[in-house]
Specification:
It is a single chain. The chain is of the alpha/beta class. The protein is about 40% helix and about 20% strand. A hairpin with a 5-residue loop joins strand 5 and strand 6. Helix 4 packs antiparallel against helix 5. The longest helix is centred in the N-terminal third of the chain and has 27 residues. The chain binds aspartic acid and magnesium ion. Aspartic acid binds next to loops.
Length: about 450
Amino acid sequence: MIVIKFGGTSVGDADRVANAIEIVAERRQRKPIVVVSALSGVTNNLVDASEAACSQDPKRVREIIAAVRQRHEDVALQLVQQKSDFFESFIKQLDKQIEEIDTILRGIALLGEITPRARDKVMSIGEKLSSVLFAYTMMMRALPGEHVHSEEVIWTDDRFGGATPDMAKTRDAAQRVLMPLLERNRIPVMGGFIGRTEAGATTTLGRNGSDYSAAIVGAALGASEVQIWTDVDGLLTCDPRLVRGARVIDRLSFDEAAELASFGAKLHPRTLEPAIAENVPVRVLNTHNPASQGTLITRVVENAPAGPRSIARKKGIAVVHISSNKMLGAHGFLARLFDEFERLAISVDLITTSEVSVSVTVDDTQNLDKLEARLREVADVNVEADQCVIAVVGTDLLADSAVGVRVFEALRGIRLKMVSLGRSGLNLSLVVDNADADRAVESIHHALFEAPVAV
Ligand code: ASP
Ligand code: MG
Protein backbone atom coordinates (compact mmCIF):
# COMPACT_ATOMS: atom_id res chain seq x y z
CA MET A 1 0.00 0.00 0.00
CA ILE A 2 0.98 3.63 -0.42
CA VAL A 3 -0.02 6.86 1.30
CA ILE A 4 -0.94 9.79 -0.95
CA LYS A 5 -0.99 13.21 0.68
CA PHE A 6 -2.32 16.37 -0.92
CA GLY A 7 -1.45 19.83 0.36
CA GLY A 8 -3.88 22.72 0.66
CA THR A 9 -3.27 24.19 -2.80
CA SER A 10 -3.65 20.72 -4.37
CA VAL A 11 -7.23 20.66 -3.05
CA GLY A 12 -7.79 24.43 -3.16
CA ASP A 13 -10.67 24.48 -5.66
CA ALA A 14 -12.88 22.18 -7.72
CA ASP A 15 -10.37 21.76 -10.57
CA ARG A 16 -7.58 20.90 -8.17
CA VAL A 17 -9.75 18.40 -6.29
CA ALA A 18 -10.77 16.76 -9.58
CA ASN A 19 -7.12 16.55 -10.56
CA ALA A 20 -6.18 15.04 -7.18
CA ILE A 21 -8.92 12.43 -7.46
CA GLU A 22 -7.60 11.53 -10.89
CA ILE A 23 -4.15 11.00 -9.39
CA VAL A 24 -5.62 8.67 -6.76
CA ALA A 25 -7.66 6.75 -9.34
CA GLU A 26 -4.56 6.14 -11.45
CA ARG A 27 -2.79 4.61 -8.44
CA ARG A 28 -5.63 2.37 -7.30
CA GLN A 29 -3.67 -0.81 -7.90
CA ARG A 30 -1.18 0.27 -5.26
CA LYS A 31 -3.84 0.36 -2.53
CA PRO A 32 -3.69 4.05 -1.62
CA ILE A 33 -4.66 5.71 1.63
CA VAL A 34 -5.39 9.40 1.04
CA VAL A 35 -4.39 12.13 3.51
CA VAL A 36 -5.54 15.68 2.75
CA SER A 37 -4.75 19.12 4.11
CA ALA A 38 -7.44 21.72 4.62
CA LEU A 39 -8.37 23.70 1.50
CA SER A 40 -5.72 26.39 1.12
CA GLY A 41 -6.28 29.27 3.52
CA VAL A 42 -8.97 27.56 5.60
CA THR A 43 -6.79 26.89 8.64
CA ASN A 44 -5.93 30.58 8.72
CA ASN A 45 -9.63 31.45 8.37
CA LEU A 46 -10.36 29.27 11.38
CA VAL A 47 -7.63 30.92 13.43
CA ASP A 48 -9.15 34.30 12.50
CA ALA A 49 -12.60 33.09 13.49
CA SER A 50 -11.41 31.96 16.92
CA GLU A 51 -9.69 35.30 17.46
CA ALA A 52 -12.84 37.16 16.41
CA ALA A 53 -14.85 35.00 18.82
CA CYS A 54 -12.41 35.73 21.60
CA SER A 55 -12.67 39.47 21.00
CA GLN A 56 -16.48 39.32 21.02
CA ASP A 57 -17.05 40.01 17.34
CA PRO A 58 -19.89 37.60 16.47
CA LYS A 59 -20.58 39.27 13.13
CA ARG A 60 -17.06 38.63 11.92
CA VAL A 61 -17.23 35.03 13.21
CA ARG A 62 -20.42 34.43 11.25
CA GLU A 63 -18.94 35.91 8.08
CA ILE A 64 -15.83 33.74 8.22
CA ILE A 65 -17.65 30.52 9.02
CA ALA A 66 -20.33 31.14 6.38
CA ALA A 67 -17.61 31.72 3.77
CA VAL A 68 -15.76 28.54 4.77
CA ARG A 69 -18.97 26.53 4.59
CA GLN A 70 -19.92 28.04 1.22
CA ARG A 71 -16.51 27.33 -0.25
CA HIS A 72 -16.82 23.61 0.53
CA GLU A 73 -20.37 23.44 -0.79
CA ASP A 74 -19.35 25.24 -4.00
CA VAL A 75 -16.45 22.90 -4.67
CA ALA A 76 -18.66 19.85 -4.17
CA LEU A 77 -21.40 21.29 -6.36
CA GLN A 78 -19.03 22.16 -9.18
CA LEU A 79 -17.64 18.65 -9.11
CA VAL A 80 -20.95 16.84 -9.29
CA GLN A 81 -22.80 19.33 -11.49
CA GLN A 82 -26.10 17.99 -10.26
CA LYS A 83 -27.38 17.19 -6.82
CA SER A 84 -27.47 13.54 -5.82
CA ASP A 85 -27.98 11.46 -2.69
CA PHE A 86 -24.24 11.57 -2.10
CA PHE A 87 -24.39 15.34 -2.37
CA GLU A 88 -27.21 15.50 0.18
CA SER A 89 -25.28 13.33 2.64
CA PHE A 90 -22.22 15.46 2.08
CA ILE A 91 -24.19 18.59 2.98
CA LYS A 92 -25.41 16.88 6.13
CA GLN A 93 -21.84 16.07 7.15
CA LEU A 94 -20.77 19.59 6.31
CA ASP A 95 -23.49 21.10 8.45
CA LYS A 96 -22.67 18.78 11.31
CA GLN A 97 -19.07 20.02 11.33
CA ILE A 98 -20.18 23.64 11.02
CA GLU A 99 -22.50 23.17 13.98
CA GLU A 100 -19.63 21.75 15.97
CA ILE A 101 -17.39 24.68 15.20
CA ASP A 102 -20.18 27.14 16.08
CA THR A 103 -20.45 25.51 19.49
CA ILE A 104 -16.72 25.73 20.16
CA LEU A 105 -16.56 29.33 18.97
CA ARG A 106 -19.43 30.26 21.26
CA GLY A 107 -17.49 28.67 24.11
CA ILE A 108 -14.45 30.75 23.23
CA ALA A 109 -16.57 33.91 23.12
CA LEU A 110 -18.12 33.12 26.47
CA LEU A 111 -14.80 32.52 28.18
CA GLY A 112 -13.02 35.32 26.33
CA GLU A 113 -10.06 32.97 26.10
CA ILE A 114 -8.65 30.53 23.54
CA THR A 115 -7.11 27.61 25.36
CA PRO A 116 -4.60 25.49 23.41
CA ARG A 117 -7.13 22.67 23.50
CA ALA A 118 -9.90 24.83 22.02
CA ARG A 119 -7.55 26.22 19.39
CA ASP A 120 -6.68 22.70 18.19
CA LYS A 121 -10.33 21.75 18.10
CA VAL A 122 -11.13 24.77 15.93
CA MET A 123 -8.14 24.35 13.61
CA SER A 124 -8.86 20.64 13.11
CA ILE A 125 -12.14 21.46 11.40
CA GLY A 126 -10.34 22.46 8.19
CA GLU A 127 -9.02 18.95 7.63
CA LYS A 128 -12.30 17.41 8.77
CA LEU A 129 -14.15 19.36 6.11
CA SER A 130 -11.61 18.76 3.34
CA SER A 131 -11.43 15.01 4.00
CA VAL A 132 -15.22 14.65 4.05
CA LEU A 133 -15.39 16.67 0.84
CA PHE A 134 -12.73 14.55 -0.81
CA ALA A 135 -14.26 11.22 0.22
CA TYR A 136 -17.75 12.20 -0.91
CA THR A 137 -16.49 13.63 -4.17
CA MET A 138 -14.76 10.33 -4.86
CA MET A 139 -18.00 8.48 -4.23
CA MET A 140 -19.94 10.85 -6.44
CA ARG A 141 -17.45 9.95 -9.15
CA ALA A 142 -17.96 6.23 -8.57
CA LEU A 143 -14.68 5.67 -6.76
CA PRO A 144 -14.75 3.73 -3.48
CA GLY A 145 -13.52 6.53 -1.20
CA GLU A 146 -14.34 6.11 2.46
CA HIS A 147 -13.96 8.82 5.04
CA VAL A 148 -11.99 7.87 8.15
CA HIS A 149 -11.76 10.06 11.25
CA SER A 150 -8.09 10.86 11.85
CA GLU A 151 -8.76 10.82 15.58
CA GLU A 152 -9.47 7.12 15.32
CA VAL A 153 -6.06 6.49 13.79
CA ILE A 154 -3.44 8.93 15.05
CA TRP A 155 -2.91 8.81 18.83
CA THR A 156 -0.72 11.49 20.33
CA ASP A 157 0.47 13.03 23.57
CA ASP A 158 -1.37 16.10 24.84
CA ARG A 159 0.97 18.82 23.62
CA PHE A 160 -1.75 20.78 21.86
CA GLY A 161 -0.54 22.70 18.83
CA GLY A 162 2.46 20.43 18.29
CA ALA A 163 1.60 16.92 19.42
CA THR A 164 3.85 13.86 19.04
CA PRO A 165 2.38 10.54 17.98
CA ASP A 166 2.30 7.48 20.18
CA MET A 167 3.44 5.08 17.49
CA ALA A 168 2.51 1.85 19.30
CA LYS A 169 -1.11 2.95 19.77
CA THR A 170 -1.23 4.47 16.30
CA ARG A 171 0.07 1.24 14.75
CA ASP A 172 -2.68 -0.77 16.46
CA ALA A 173 -5.35 1.72 15.48
CA ALA A 174 -4.17 1.94 11.87
CA GLN A 175 -4.19 -1.85 11.58
CA ARG A 176 -7.64 -2.04 13.09
CA VAL A 177 -9.27 0.87 11.22
CA LEU A 178 -7.49 1.10 7.86
CA MET A 179 -6.46 -2.42 6.95
CA PRO A 180 -9.98 -3.87 6.74
CA LEU A 181 -10.93 -1.06 4.36
CA LEU A 182 -7.96 -1.78 2.10
CA GLU A 183 -8.82 -5.46 2.15
CA ARG A 184 -12.28 -4.59 0.87
CA ASN A 185 -10.67 -2.48 -1.88
CA ARG A 186 -11.91 0.74 -0.36
CA ILE A 187 -9.80 3.90 -0.50
CA PRO A 188 -9.57 5.43 2.99
CA VAL A 189 -9.53 9.24 3.04
CA MET A 190 -8.48 11.06 6.19
CA GLY A 191 -7.57 14.59 7.19
CA GLY A 192 -3.92 15.31 7.93
CA PHE A 193 -2.74 17.47 10.82
CA ILE A 194 -5.11 15.94 13.39
CA GLY A 195 -4.69 13.42 16.18
CA ARG A 196 -6.24 12.63 19.53
CA THR A 197 -5.00 12.13 23.06
CA GLU A 198 -5.56 9.01 25.10
CA ALA A 199 -8.42 10.84 26.83
CA GLY A 200 -10.02 11.63 23.48
CA ALA A 201 -9.19 15.32 23.03
CA THR A 202 -8.39 16.51 19.51
CA THR A 203 -4.77 17.56 18.94
CA THR A 204 -2.88 19.03 15.99
CA LEU A 205 0.65 18.20 14.90
CA GLY A 206 1.80 21.78 14.24
CA ARG A 207 1.23 24.04 11.23
CA ASN A 208 1.74 22.23 7.93
CA GLY A 209 1.47 18.98 9.86
CA SER A 210 -0.35 16.99 7.17
CA ASP A 211 2.93 15.79 5.70
CA TYR A 212 3.79 14.48 9.12
CA SER A 213 0.41 12.69 9.36
CA ALA A 214 1.03 10.99 6.04
CA ALA A 215 4.43 9.74 7.20
CA ILE A 216 2.96 8.57 10.53
CA VAL A 217 0.29 6.52 8.74
CA GLY A 218 2.83 5.18 6.25
CA ALA A 219 5.20 4.16 9.03
CA ALA A 220 2.38 2.63 11.11
CA LEU A 221 1.40 0.34 8.25
CA GLY A 222 4.81 -0.19 6.65
CA ALA A 223 3.74 1.47 3.39
CA SER A 224 5.89 0.89 0.34
CA GLU A 225 5.92 4.65 -0.25
CA VAL A 226 4.60 7.90 1.20
CA GLN A 227 3.83 10.36 -1.58
CA ILE A 228 3.69 14.06 -0.74
CA TRP A 229 1.90 15.84 -3.59
CA THR A 230 2.58 19.57 -3.81
CA ASP A 231 2.80 22.19 -6.53
CA VAL A 232 6.48 21.92 -7.46
CA ASP A 233 8.37 19.06 -9.11
CA GLY A 234 9.87 17.79 -5.86
CA LEU A 235 12.74 19.11 -3.79
CA LEU A 236 14.97 21.46 -5.72
CA THR A 237 18.62 22.47 -5.70
CA CYS A 238 17.40 25.81 -4.35
CA ASP A 239 14.20 27.75 -3.80
CA PRO A 240 13.18 28.63 -7.39
CA ARG A 241 11.99 32.05 -6.22
CA LEU A 242 15.62 32.79 -5.33
CA VAL A 243 17.42 31.13 -8.20
CA ARG A 244 15.97 30.78 -11.68
CA GLY A 245 18.28 27.88 -12.57
CA ALA A 246 17.08 25.73 -9.63
CA ARG A 247 16.37 22.17 -10.72
CA VAL A 248 14.76 19.05 -9.29
CA ILE A 249 16.84 16.59 -7.27
CA ASP A 250 16.00 13.00 -8.29
CA ARG A 251 17.22 11.22 -5.19
CA LEU A 252 18.08 12.26 -1.66
CA SER A 253 19.00 10.40 1.50
CA PHE A 254 16.88 10.79 4.63
CA ASP A 255 19.78 12.66 6.23
CA GLU A 256 20.05 15.15 3.39
CA ALA A 257 16.30 15.70 3.20
CA ALA A 258 15.98 16.10 6.98
CA GLU A 259 18.71 18.72 6.88
CA LEU A 260 16.85 20.59 4.13
CA ALA A 261 13.49 20.26 5.88
CA SER A 262 14.97 21.92 8.96
CA PHE A 263 15.68 24.90 6.71
CA GLY A 264 12.09 25.15 5.60
CA ALA A 265 12.24 23.09 2.41
CA LYS A 266 8.83 21.94 1.19
CA LEU A 267 8.40 19.41 4.02
CA HIS A 268 7.20 19.66 7.61
CA PRO A 269 10.46 19.24 9.56
CA ARG A 270 9.23 16.21 11.50
CA THR A 271 7.87 14.38 8.45
CA LEU A 272 10.93 12.23 8.07
CA GLU A 273 11.09 10.98 11.67
CA PRO A 274 8.52 8.18 11.29
CA ALA A 275 9.72 7.41 7.77
CA ILE A 276 13.29 7.00 8.99
CA ALA A 277 12.21 4.87 11.95
CA GLU A 278 10.37 2.39 9.72
CA ASN A 279 12.49 2.91 6.61
CA VAL A 280 9.57 4.01 4.44
CA PRO A 281 10.55 5.84 1.23
CA VAL A 282 9.07 9.32 0.81
CA ARG A 283 8.47 10.83 -2.62
CA VAL A 284 7.67 14.50 -3.26
CA LEU A 285 5.58 15.01 -6.40
CA ASN A 286 3.83 17.73 -8.38
CA THR A 287 0.06 17.65 -8.92
CA HIS A 288 0.52 19.93 -11.95
CA ASN A 289 2.93 17.46 -13.50
CA PRO A 290 1.99 13.95 -12.31
CA ALA A 291 4.15 12.23 -14.91
CA SER A 292 7.36 13.54 -13.40
CA GLN A 293 9.12 11.23 -10.93
CA GLY A 294 9.63 13.96 -8.35
CA THR A 295 12.20 13.50 -5.61
CA LEU A 296 12.61 10.10 -3.99
CA ILE A 297 13.96 10.13 -0.43
CA THR A 298 15.34 6.87 0.94
CA ARG A 299 17.72 5.68 3.65
CA VAL A 300 20.50 4.92 1.18
CA VAL A 301 20.88 6.20 -2.32
CA GLU A 302 22.78 3.55 -4.24
CA ASN A 303 25.83 4.76 -6.15
CA ALA A 304 25.27 8.30 -4.94
CA PRO A 305 28.41 10.32 -5.56
CA ALA A 306 29.76 12.50 -2.79
CA GLY A 307 28.88 16.14 -3.34
CA PRO A 308 26.36 18.93 -2.85
CA ARG A 309 22.65 18.41 -3.50
CA SER A 310 20.91 21.60 -2.50
CA ILE A 311 21.28 25.05 -0.96
CA ALA A 312 18.93 26.45 1.66
CA ARG A 313 18.94 29.60 3.68
CA LYS A 314 17.40 30.97 6.83
CA LYS A 315 17.26 34.74 7.26
CA GLY A 316 16.75 36.83 10.37
CA ILE A 317 19.00 34.94 12.73
CA ALA A 318 21.46 36.45 15.18
CA VAL A 319 25.10 35.61 15.79
CA VAL A 320 26.55 35.85 19.28
CA HIS A 321 30.33 36.27 19.28
CA ILE A 322 31.95 35.59 22.63
CA SER A 323 35.65 35.95 23.32
CA SER A 324 37.72 35.85 26.46
CA ASN A 325 41.33 35.35 27.38
CA LYS A 326 40.10 33.31 30.31
CA MET A 327 39.37 30.58 27.80
CA LEU A 328 43.04 30.17 27.03
CA GLY A 329 44.05 26.76 28.32
CA ALA A 330 41.15 26.74 30.77
CA HIS A 331 38.62 23.99 31.17
CA GLY A 332 34.97 24.34 32.01
CA PHE A 333 34.65 27.71 30.31
CA LEU A 334 32.45 26.46 27.48
CA ALA A 335 30.27 24.59 29.95
CA ARG A 336 29.84 27.84 31.83
CA LEU A 337 28.88 29.72 28.65
CA PHE A 338 26.36 27.17 27.50
CA ASP A 339 24.90 26.99 30.94
CA GLU A 340 23.69 30.58 30.41
CA PHE A 341 22.01 29.59 27.14
CA GLU A 342 20.39 26.69 28.94
CA ARG A 343 19.08 28.89 31.74
CA LEU A 344 17.45 31.28 29.31
CA ALA A 345 16.15 28.40 27.16
CA ILE A 346 17.92 29.76 24.08
CA SER A 347 18.53 27.10 21.48
CA VAL A 348 21.84 27.22 19.63
CA ASP A 349 22.14 26.19 15.97
CA LEU A 350 25.63 26.63 14.56
CA ILE A 351 28.78 26.84 16.66
CA THR A 352 32.36 27.62 15.78
CA THR A 353 35.19 27.89 18.26
CA SER A 354 38.81 28.88 18.43
CA GLU A 355 41.13 28.86 21.41
CA VAL A 356 39.78 32.17 22.75
CA SER A 357 36.44 32.71 21.07
CA VAL A 358 33.11 31.09 20.37
CA SER A 359 30.46 32.16 17.86
CA VAL A 360 26.96 30.72 17.85
CA THR A 361 23.81 31.40 15.86
CA VAL A 362 20.35 31.56 17.39
CA ASP A 363 17.14 31.95 15.46
CA ASP A 364 14.93 32.92 18.36
CA THR A 365 16.12 36.37 19.34
CA GLN A 366 14.01 36.57 22.49
CA ASN A 367 16.02 36.91 25.71
CA LEU A 368 19.16 37.87 23.81
CA ASP A 369 19.57 41.08 25.83
CA LYS A 370 19.54 39.11 29.04
CA LEU A 371 22.01 36.61 27.63
CA GLU A 372 24.34 39.38 26.56
CA ALA A 373 24.26 40.95 30.01
CA ARG A 374 25.04 37.68 31.73
CA LEU A 375 27.82 36.67 29.37
CA ARG A 376 29.45 40.07 29.73
CA GLU A 377 30.34 39.16 33.28
CA VAL A 378 32.85 36.64 31.98
CA ALA A 379 33.67 37.58 28.38
CA ASP A 380 33.51 40.15 25.61
CA VAL A 381 30.24 39.75 23.80
CA ASN A 382 29.03 41.07 20.50
CA VAL A 383 25.58 40.27 19.11
CA GLU A 384 24.93 40.75 15.41
CA ALA A 385 21.29 40.74 14.33
CA ASP A 386 19.90 40.41 10.78
CA GLN A 387 22.17 37.61 9.73
CA CYS A 388 21.48 34.68 7.40
CA VAL A 389 22.60 31.05 7.54
CA ILE A 390 23.26 29.51 4.15
CA ALA A 391 23.49 25.73 4.14
CA VAL A 392 25.03 23.69 1.37
CA VAL A 393 23.61 20.22 1.97
CA GLY A 394 24.99 17.04 0.45
CA THR A 395 26.86 13.83 1.05
CA ASP A 396 30.44 13.68 2.27
CA LEU A 397 31.20 17.27 1.43
CA LEU A 398 34.67 16.74 2.92
CA ALA A 399 35.53 14.10 0.33
CA ASP A 400 36.93 16.61 -2.09
CA SER A 401 37.98 20.18 -1.36
CA ALA A 402 36.57 21.16 -4.76
CA VAL A 403 33.23 21.91 -3.07
CA GLY A 404 34.86 24.29 -0.63
CA VAL A 405 36.97 25.87 -3.36
CA ARG A 406 33.91 26.60 -5.46
CA VAL A 407 31.82 27.89 -2.57
CA PHE A 408 34.50 30.26 -1.31
CA GLU A 409 35.38 31.41 -4.80
CA ALA A 410 31.69 32.16 -5.36
CA LEU A 411 31.64 34.28 -2.22
CA ARG A 412 34.49 36.53 -3.31
CA GLY A 413 33.72 40.07 -2.15
CA ILE A 414 31.04 38.98 0.34
CA ARG A 415 31.82 39.26 4.02
CA LEU A 416 31.61 35.91 5.84
CA LYS A 417 30.65 35.89 9.50
CA MET A 418 30.95 32.19 10.30
CA VAL A 419 31.77 28.91 8.57
CA SER A 420 30.98 25.48 9.90
CA LEU A 421 31.38 21.99 8.47
CA GLY A 422 31.32 18.98 10.74
CA ARG A 423 32.77 15.54 10.31
CA SER A 424 29.49 14.23 8.94
CA GLY A 425 30.11 16.31 5.83
CA LEU A 426 26.37 16.73 5.48
CA ASN A 427 26.07 20.46 5.76
CA LEU A 428 28.51 23.25 4.99
CA SER A 429 27.01 26.26 6.74
CA LEU A 430 27.97 29.85 6.18
CA VAL A 431 26.70 33.00 7.82
CA VAL A 432 26.46 36.29 5.96
CA ASP A 433 24.55 39.55 6.41
CA ASN A 434 20.86 39.32 5.45
CA ALA A 435 21.58 42.00 2.88
CA ASP A 436 24.18 39.81 1.12
CA ALA A 437 22.22 36.57 1.39
CA ASP A 438 20.35 36.46 -1.92
CA ARG A 439 23.41 37.37 -3.93
CA ALA A 440 25.48 34.78 -2.06
CA VAL A 441 22.93 32.00 -2.59
CA GLU A 442 22.66 32.76 -6.29
CA SER A 443 26.38 32.81 -6.73
CA ILE A 444 26.96 29.54 -4.81
CA HIS A 445 24.14 27.86 -6.72
CA HIS A 446 25.69 28.94 -9.96
CA ALA A 447 29.11 27.64 -8.97
CA LEU A 448 27.87 24.26 -7.73
CA PHE A 449 24.99 23.42 -10.02
CA GLU A 450 25.08 25.55 -13.13
CA ALA A 451 28.79 25.83 -13.93
CA PRO A 452 29.95 23.81 -16.97
CA VAL A 453 31.58 21.09 -14.85
CA ALA A 454 29.37 20.12 -11.92
CA VAL A 455 31.22 19.26 -8.74
N1 ASP B 1 -3.98 22.86 7.39
C1 ASP B 1 -2.84 22.84 8.26
C2 ASP B 1 -2.07 24.13 8.12
O1 ASP B 1 -2.44 24.99 7.32
C3 ASP B 1 -1.97 21.65 8.05
C4 ASP B 1 -1.41 21.48 6.65
O2 ASP B 1 -1.77 22.19 5.73
O3 ASP B 1 -0.58 20.59 6.46
O4 ASP B 1 -1.12 24.35 8.82
MG1 MG C 1 1.17 22.47 3.50
